[in-house]
Amino acid sequence: MFAAPGRVNLIGEHTDYAEGFVMPAAIDFATLAGVSPRTDGKVAIRAENYGEERVYETGALPQTRSRDWSDYPVGVLKMMEEDGYRIPGLSLTLWGDVPLGSGLSSSAAVEVATATAVADLVNAKYTGPELARLCQRAENQFVGSACGIMDQFVSVNAREGHALLLDCRDLSYRLAPIPEDVALVIANTMVKHAVTGGEYTSRRAEVEEATEAIRRHRPEVKFLRDATVEDLERWGGEMSENARKRARHVITENQRTVAAAKALICKDLRELGRLMAEAHWSYSRDFEASCEEADAMVELAQDLPGLIGARLTGGGFGGCTVNLVEAGSAEEFRSALKERYKARTGIEAQVYICHASAGAHRVE
Ligand code: GAF
């Protein structure tokens, strides 16, 4: 049996596919994958949460997606086959408690749990970064969502008690300890988020439009990671207004993310909170990936006792906010935020007090 966690991103949104920086932590919600060999030549995948099972002949996994939960584990198995591993008869049982459609990477948790379990069964030797890339390929090529590497990477490589500053260009990373007296409070707006939806993809296309416009003048700009605010000032007129705004978010977000890691490592929580606030409003106003409810959730947290920083986390258009809160105030913060949010929006939010957890591992 193996476990792979969901994640919360502290800062660095829509920067991963621009080969920039992100700073996520794994959370204590996870997918569990139980795997065992079978001798009847069948690959049986069961989703405990749905009470459903799919059974395939070995060597005859589906060619195309089914647009349901099975695409994630099947995609991973197909990528392993592409890597030259023969998938034998097996039973794989999945169960998870990562809230679905909440921007906490339930999909990555399923992919990574599957990959870790099946890699163990077939004795495949993947390094952490390779395993993350395998899962990302499953999502890009089989599931059909254009996600970056952040979610799969942190689900594989996270360390308990730490956030991870990841350079999405070369996948090198630095661990940043989250102080013991700081709680991760995750507030679910209950507005559904999806990476497979059109908005994520159209934002990504706008980021690419901006990159191309700058690249015409500076060929060394392969991704927005390589661009500067000055580039945007000079050549912003040669792209659409939307592309310019999206690019401004991504370029400044990369700078904020590196600065935020530094602040966390130096325990400068004031500066970290300031950067998170700036990141939220950049995500909301320039990237236009927030929604009324998420903006309200961030605003309503501002003057609650114990708050260090709050922002919308994940792919956007709903999902959760992440709140760094002094641990001693976390419980009170949780109930006050729920109450305020209910009064403002009429919605009953779920608010989780989480702990930065370890990446994928065997469960004894
Ligand atoms: C989603 C994607 F899956 C990630 O790759 C990342 O782009 C994120 O949205 C936005 O930062 O979680």
The H-and-E topology, N to C, reads as: EEEEEHEHHHEEEHHHHHEEHEE
The molecules bound to the chains, other than polymers, are:
2-deoxy-2-fluoro-alpha-D-galactopyranose
Question: What is the tally of helical segments?
Answer: 10
Uncertain stretches: none
Rounded to the nearest angstrom, the distance between the terminal CA atoms is 7 Å
Structural class: alpha+beta
Task: Describe the main β-sheet briefly.
Answer: 6 strands, mixed
Mean pLDDT: 97
- Order of neighbouring strands in the sheet with most strands: 5-4-6-3-1-13
Describe the protein's architecture and organization.
This protein is α+β, with helices and mostly antiparallel strands and 364 residues long. It is 40% helix and 23% strand. It has helices at residues 71-82, 106-121, 128-143, 150-157, 198-215, 229-235, 241-265, 269-286, 292-301, 330-345; strands at 2-9, 21-22, 24-37, 42-47, 52-57, 90-96, 162-167, 172-177, 182-188, 307-312, 320-326, 350-354, 361-362. The strands form 3 sheets. A 6-stranded mixed beta sheet has the order 5-4-6-3-1-13, covered by helices on one side. A 4-stranded antiparallel beta sheet has the order 10-11-9-12. The chain has a 3-stranded antiparallel beta sheet with strand order 2-7-8, covered by helices on one side. It is globular, with a radius of gyration of 20 Å. The protein starts with a strand and ends with a strand. The mean pLDDT is 97. The structure holds 2-deoxy-2-fluoro-alpha-D-galactopyranose (GAF). 2-deoxy-2-fluoro-alpha-D-galactopyranose is lined by residues 13-14, 16-17, 147-148, 150-151, 195, 314-315.
